Amino acid sequence: MQIGDQVRFLNEVGGGKITGFQGKNIVLVEDADGFDIPMLRSQVVVVETNANNFVVKKKPEAPAPRVRYLEDDVDDDPSSRPMSYQPKAKERKGGDELNVFLAFVPVNPREFSHTSFEVYLVNDSNYYASAVLACAEGEQWRLRWQGVVEPNTKQLIETLELSDLNDWERLSAQVMTWKRDYAYSLLPATNTEVRLDLVKFVKFHAFRPSPFFHEPALVYNLAHEDQQEEDDAITENLSIVDSQSVGEDSEDEEVPQQAPAPQMTREEERAALKAAKRALKEEMRAQREKEKAERNPHFSKPNHIPAKEEIIEVDLHIHALLDHTEGLSAGVLLNTQLTEFRIMMDRNIKKKGQRIVFIHGKGDGVLRAEIIKELQHRYRSCTYEDASFQKYGFGATMVTIR
To answer: Whole-prediction pTM value?
Structure first.
């Protein structure tokens, strides 16, 4: 190694010409910009030179022959190629029947009245399922999700708030199936339309245990339309019986089902709710006039303490308040029931000692929880307790005016 030799760096990019030495271990290397860079002797290597100190260019070594693949024409770096290996799908016994489900799972079942819902597509078969989900917009459809669900797996579609369920009321699910690693029988593509009953999403008992989730879920079968209709009929029967029951004994009564009515628009819902409120106010005004006419002139004090046997019973079941509920959303129905509760409370708030039994049914507890919230914030002076179990079962709350 001498002055004038061309060198390159071992552990760094670059090199240059030796211009001098500092001690025994330091070499001064002039780079392309004319700066002298001190480097350790062990960190530089001399490029071969001849006697006149000119660089001798090495002949490049011929690359080793290798087999070229089609994908080499796109990218020669194997590390940059996408992973193409996929493990062989595992099949289970009895999985050759197509079973594809759409499931709604509450995120927080403990606070069911305020929870959101996760939407899953469940493929309970040995087939790959290519699915397209669309929601109705009038006479047209809007795509909500499309993709492939692997055999014997479930796919999270999205998470919905209770207010978003109106957009999912009418669904279309198209499913096409195949197998990748095994021979299979051709199954016809399915096209299933599902109508969601939004009232079920405010009734916890409509969500049932299933083999696919740890939590209760509302599951719709997308593979067989006749099976879906049977499941809907069973759940609808349970919903009607529970909404009309006061105690546990009435849950066994058979209630005829009504044919589904066309869905109402938001404007029609608001108009129906206003009409129901007006009817309740007119009833309250007529009741006040009747009480005024029947009042004893010799006992005109309005705030007398009623006798213990004077108990007012108020049925808050929706079928007792409205003649028709077809097309009304769960929020509209709940507001109608709470409006009736407030009207009865305001009508009797000056009658100290008056007891009122509100019959709300057992259900999933949403209406009872809202009534207790009203009593704790709006009617703090009143007390409440569970009504007589022998007479009302679990579905009634008695309020005492204080």
So the answer is: 0.39
